[in-house]
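In practice, a research group might receive sequence data for several interacting partners and want a quick structural hypothesis before committing to experiments. The following worked case mirrors that situation: the sequences arrive first, and a predicted assembly follows.
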Amino acid sequence: MSARLLIVAACALIDADGRILIAKRPAGKAMAGLWEFPGGKVEPGETPEQTLIRELSEELGIVVREACLAPLTFASHSYPDFHLLMPLYVCRRWEGQVTTQHHTELAWVRPNKLRDYPMPPADEPLIPHLTALL
Ligand SMILES: Nc1nc2c([nH]c(=O)n2[C@@H]2O[C@H](COP(=O)(O)OP(=O)(O)OP(=O)(O)O)[C@@H](O)[C@H]2O)c(=O)[nH]1
Ligand SMILES: [Mg+2]
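A structural hypothesis for the assembly, expressed as tokens:
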């Protein structure tokens, strides 16, 4: 039996000091309290880039241009009820101030400190890619 495939686009925003933005998932949602990369489900008719432009506006209140989204790697992880395919982009340039519209908390973290923040299991293999990049 094959699980439902869920495509989620995620983005690591990187600031001028090489720190990465992670966000704490709100209470009441799946995996509440874990730290994630902002993003969300790719809706029908959307490209992953369009999803990220929408989600980063909804979740963080910033404007991102497609040209500023660079693919880095992806996660492929089986959860009990679905299989997650999650492209991870990086973005170093955006307009506006990052604010919490959705998450409990935001943190700017150096890649070698990401392990101090509990993340969903799908995210763990992504960390070395960010460490290598920065
Ligand atoms: N955004 C995001 N989702 C992740 C990450 N890692 C991971 O396993 N996921 C999973 O991907 C799924 C969808 O993510 P999401 O909750 O952001 O979706 P969304 O923004 O569209 O939210 P919604 O369901 O309220 O519409 C969730 O099951 C979430 O746990 C990650 O780093 N970032
Ligand atoms: Mg989301």
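Before designing any experiment, note the following. The chain has one domain: 4-133. The longest strand covers residues 4-13.
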